[in-house]
Amino acid sequence: MPSLSFPTAGSLDGIRVIDLTRVISGPFCTQMLGDHGADVIKVEPPRRGDVVRAQGNIVEGLSWYFAQFNRNKRSLTLDLRSESGKALLWRLLEEADVLVENFRPGVLARMGLDDTTLRERFPRLVVGRINGFGSEGPYRDRPAYDFIAQAMSGFMSVNGTSDGEPMRAAPPLSDMVASQNLAFGLCAALVRRERTGRGEIVETALTNGLIGMMGYLAAEYFATDQVPARTGNDHPMVYPYGLFQASDGDVAIAPSNDAMVARLLGALDQLELLEDERFADNRRRMIHREALRDRLNAVIGTRSVAEWIAHLNEAGVPCGRVHSLRDTFADPQVQAQQMRLELDQGKHGRVPTTGFPVKMSEAPAAVYRHVPALGEHTREILTQLGIDETELQRLQDEGVV
Amino acid sequence: MPSLSFPTAGSLDGIRVIDLTRVISGPFCTQMLGDHGADVIKVEPPRRGDVVRAQGNIVEGLSWYFAQFNRNKRSLTLDLRSESGKALLWRLLEEADVLVENFRPGVLARMGLDDTTLRERFPRLVVGRINGFGSEGPYRDRPAYDFIAQAMSGFMSVNGTSDGEPMRAAPPLSDMVASQNLAFGLCAALVRRERTGRGEIVETALTNGLIGMMGYLAAEYFATDQVPARTGNDHPMVYPYGLFQASDGDVAIAPSNDAMVARLLGALDQLELLEDERFADNRRRMIHREALRDRLNAVIGTRSVAEWIAHLNEAGVPCGRVHSLRDTFADPQVQAQQMRLELDQGKHGRVPTTGFPVKMSEAPAAVYRHVPALGEHTREILTQLGIDETELQRLQDEGVV
């Protein structure tokens, strides 16, 4: 099978990905691969496709939620429950570098692709797998969902205010983090394949990914045996840090060490506060946090957010405005970084999505392909596989594609 | 320079990383590379080292916060402001595959390593860079910090409750996400290097990474021009979903589609609710959310969390307990997945850290090296570079190492 109809300029040019995933966790991962030049073939059930095609706001016949996760892919419909569909999947895998799936553990094996078969029949194939809890352990068969992973990873226990309940983050963090981990793992496995000639199975799980994000909160729990409290916008270990009230809104300020605290106080013309023994070092500032907060707000309340942001940045103090998503995408820096992209979706119009967070100097991410209609590339891909018109017609008649 | 004193079994075995990063965003990325077998040389300023060595709880002389981000690395002290230090860095780069830095834009160039020099003198080198806002654009020189990126990315605007203020997440999400993106990008660049023989510069930024996580929230904003509201534990688009009150605590429940909602109601023996026209489909359930919440809590309140978790999982409904970090690390699934590791740190004792979220079948992540003391491997690495005892003594006397 020839590669893409055109070579991409991306770092992963020449890598073909067979993508059996749906919803968020898998498609976000394979989109990262496609953004960087891989040839991603999204395999979807005939007629209905990925369920996300029907979710979120549908504009001019296209779900913009679906668009957010499925640019830079080709769509092939294939009924993986049929024998003909399974046979075609095997033919695809013979010419693929990567297979990605986010079924529950065991589903792929029931399609005939258990781990032993994958390794023996497709020794160079790198297999990526995302699930809820991992494919070993007592919960392996439980149904998973981002919210459950946020709850069980401990993330929710530290997200929120001290007087509120444990709280989820609005983005499906566990899906997104597991996707990023898988994209990394797949590329690491491709690096190894260059050395050894052999693929391997790479697995990430929603809960495991978020546990890996607990970072210093986990370290503090391990060190003290005390579970971290929810502290809202206050940092559990440093002060000053947080939202302060300027005359026309909040400003986020986060000096990260004593030198920056001195810069902040200098910029506020409040250096004498350091001579107040309550505020002389971070430990004492944590104890007298409310008193210091009041003192700082008394000064910060005298000028506008814009004035403070200009003034404090000038002084080298990390600070910024709390942006709504409208503010974010209108921001000149965000625009300079092209973090809002527009896809040309033909009859569906121009569709905005978020941009590429990984910038490459020689082989930058790009929009190589629009978001595919369901089965848009079925004929193209099957023809490249060597399927003739008669067989294609038969597959269509049987509802396999 | 020979590789590691022992080969690792990891996917990135044979890849040498020169790591100039400090604090969280860089060290988390390079630890991912080290976990998977790369030879990571952490370059630290003589005498003080990475500032995180002195932060968080220090147990038996070791910061467990530092340990959380610095296993699987060797430590080399080097004064990069001195001419001898810069010369040694060049020698290291001649035998390296990857350089990673998280200075502010321009700092590396002022050390003589501007982009042109890097590409010309080290054409095979892959350079990784993490900063706050990206190295182009009006904010490139602003000081950055996780909290500011959480504010400016729009993340805080959707995190929190409708009656509360925009809120940061407790883990430094922007640092962690940019690290994961960079780890992916570096490996993608290594894949390309196999094909082209040339390295490239890979950059991620704290704000860009979090913007990339806005996913369907960004899509909904683009489609409606309405900024998403903060909805706490409620999902903005589906119901039932959220925390429900069992007799002895909360249970998180998240059926993801109509079929699962029917399974949930069946398991609660409340299938007749679907005949109530207020609850017949998701759109109407969103409108009558509070009424349905009350009906569900009336049933869920009659039994314990443990009973519901067993019963609902049996029925195939995603659900779980809200875990504290103590619950998380005590959980049998988390233990089966080895998401709590213990490092043998010799005189510092056994130090727990979070485990490996990326599982590989052939070349699994492993603890190849303990968390290094400051400069622990200076002599070993310089000897491998061909520095003799006389020169080493001179470098020590001059405070360069």
Automatic annotation (TrEMBL), chains A, B:
Origin: domain of life: Bacteria
Keyword list, A-Z: Transferase
PANTHER family to which the protein is assigned, alphabetical: SUCCINATE--HYDROXYMETHYLGLUTARATE COA-TRANSFERASE
The protein's name in its UniProt record: Carnitine dehydratase
Organism phylogeny: Bacteria, Pseudomonadati, Pseudomonadota, Gammaproteobacteria, Oceanospirillales
